[in-house]
Request: fold
Amino acid sequence: MTFAPILAPSLLAGDHAALGDSAAVVPAHGLEWLHLDIMDGHFVPNLTFGPEIVAALRRRPELSDTFFDTHLMLDEPHRYIEAFAKAGSNLISIHIEPTYDHRATLAEIRNLGCQNGIVLNPGTPVDVVKHLVAEVDLVLVMTVQPGFGGQSFREDMMPKLQRLAAWREAQNLNFRLEVDGGVDLKTGPLCRAAGADTFVAGTAFFKAEDRTAFAAAVSGW
Ligand code: DX5
Ligand code: ZN
Reply:
């Protein structure tokens, strides 16, 4: 299964004093997905925004059809699934590293009407999600240590993408394969060649000289 490439700009690199205006740039470029990075100051050493802000973004008329790809970088994501689903998320992804019932939480996400995703940090081997890949809509391979935008891309994550793509093929699954961190015009095609189809880009999109050209390039990957 090969999906057409999707660009999911990360609002983390937008203007946080004008989040609604920054988010509205995404549909204005004809893009469907918006990546929302939720950080708790525990799982990652940074804080961003919570469900109230996601709900407020959802109420913006320009964003009513935008696909909210909500990436929870939380120690206890299971406590916040309902809040982020009710806030208008379309997909909620949760990390495999903290200890909680991953399978039950992934099921809860679907029961609340959202797509679900499982996320791996750079130091996490891909085998630890093998038992879950048949139950998810998306697997997110972090290509930086999460917490901050603008970090250097980890090319050594490419074998993980290749293995996940091989499992997907062998088991006839159809989860999307997303990458997040340091994705730009140079590194994105490497991810695509390794099997990725969904590309989070914070800095490379929001700080681009020509966002239209960047979005057009990604659609050709
Ligand atoms: C990192 C976040 C990313 C981040 C990517 O913790 O999960 O989504 O915004 O930013 P760039 O594209 O600048 O590396
Ligand atoms: Zn992210």
Observations:
- The helical segments are 19-28, 51-59, 81-86, 102-111, 158-170, 188-194, 203-206, 211-219.
